[in-house]
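Please, structure for the following, as tokens.
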Amino acid sequence: MPLSAGARLGPYEIVAAVGAGGMGEVYRARDTRLKRDVALKILPASFASDPDRLARFQREAEVLASLSHPNIAAIFGLEESDGSRALIMELVEGETLADRIARGPIPIDEALPIAKQIAEALEAAHEQGVIHRDLKPANIKVTSSGTVKVLDFGLAKLAEAPAVTTSTNSLSISPTITSPAMMTGVGVLLGTAAYMSPEQAKGKAADKRSDIWAFGCVLFEMLTGKRTFEGEDVADTLASVLRAQPDWQSLPADLPSPIAALLSQSLQKDRHQRLGDIAAASFAFRMGSSVATPVRTPARHRAIPLVVTCAICAAIAAMSAWRLKLPAPTSPGRFEILLASGQEFSVAAASRRLIAMSPDGSQIAYVGSSGLYIRPLASLAVRRLVATDDQQAIQNPVFSPDGQSIAFYSAFDRALKRVSVTGGAAATLYSSEAPNGIEWSEDGI
């Protein structure tokens, strides 16, 4: 039975009910010791003896305690009293993003700052190894000052036990856990149907790219006022997630091209083709707030690789900086690259840059027939950083501004990668189609 105003849970006095869902009941309460209002998320009595629910509740408290970010609602503690257990959390005033969208599409200049803060919250969670797995407008609040708070990490990084299927009339409110995955034991579907990634819809394990998919769904809904994928019930909605394409024509005609590219990369059904790290979204938002030329979505939508858009914008910025800041060129320098025995070097493909120089001019990196190499100009010593049997597999190396890393495109993995100049394993930044070039800006993009 829901608690009534005036009821007590330890030192906390219930003021009013805020909402309820599959993860618990939420109340506004008064902390009588610290004289402040807080949010109490209480595990319903019917679940008090359920070990799986208790473990999930405890895990949510631990997950929230591991996160500290201005765009994630903070946790103050865990309280137990008279058999009831509650999370004591920051009380976030304001409406949910779902409430705001219910009034219609959000203008671009209002939507982008909100989306940027959501992305920053996800980035902070992902850096701690936390995957939300139920990101949706109902779990996001926007305060009167425009500050975004991501809520409800009840499904975060949890292995879920089978549970009953939710009502088909609450697709955007409560977590969706459906059969037949439960009955076979192969997998369990976690999340909310309208924002669930294709891999989650198939009962596969979620990773940070699943959150990126949900982020794309939320951004699309903010801009259009309608869900990215819809259906009459859970089954129809999941079928839409797996087979349908978003209605790209419903996006605003004046949407900046970097934001269109971000949406396209976030909503790739194959997660190997999806944006691999939400941190890359920050560049799109910076460019989207300054790019005057919109993208008008064609009748037949074609995915715009984010890395290509970023490379073009970064190249323009780099060229402008070169014209404005660098001194006039002096006499040219010349040097030779002595290849190892049996190694070949080819520049046949004009779209593939095979050599790069460090920002301080002390080292060069180049693609040979068996990998990516680095060599100090003051020495003939050559080190191989990345091995490959196919020279075509590595393209467009570029040094970081500090000269400590090299980014390159791997045609074999179809991904942008990064490797330290001291060696070690190459890390995948995100999946992408082959770019015509890569630039690395001074601010790390």
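The chain has a mean pLDDT of 78. The longest strand covers residues 12-21.
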